[in-house]
Write the structure tokens for this entry.
Amino acid sequence: MLATHFTTGKIECGCDEAGRGCLAGPVFAGAVIFPDGFVCEELNDSKQLSEAKRYELREVIQQNALAWGVAMLTNEEIDRVNILNASLAAMNRAVKQLSVRPQLLLIDGPRFRDGQGIPYACIVKGDGKFQSIAAASILAKTYRDDFMRKIDQEFPQYNWAKNKGYPTRDHYEAIRQYGITPYHRQSFKLYK
């Protein structure tokens, strides 16, 4: 089971992103604060869960969180600032949406740049260690998947409903055959 707290006596917020390695679409980030004593044994890194389980847990998270936020940076913003900076900015945007100000951010990954004066701890593979980070990863992933399904209707030939914009063989093949769309990240290597 994942840990419920990094420290005691502070309002902690888990933060994670989804879509960093994709060729198309935005990067999304989630931020989640759980109330003291909240435990959900099923929470885990979103990559370890089935799609159905992620959506089931999204409801649990949104109903039980003290506060939660989801934010994104578009592919144009990613091209402007690079994917690392876009991921960090998305996490900051998600935190700004919270109705409760956290006293400590738990960041999934080795680095962060805080824009709000909130202390933070960077935790490598944190989405497999802390409930709040796992929850943030689930929100980021499911909301990003929703976005990719929506734009798949605009550009069905890229199969985004299935590959979600990741660098799969069929995605590279579609780029070769049809070219790029307004949703592709032009700073990424789009041709293989």
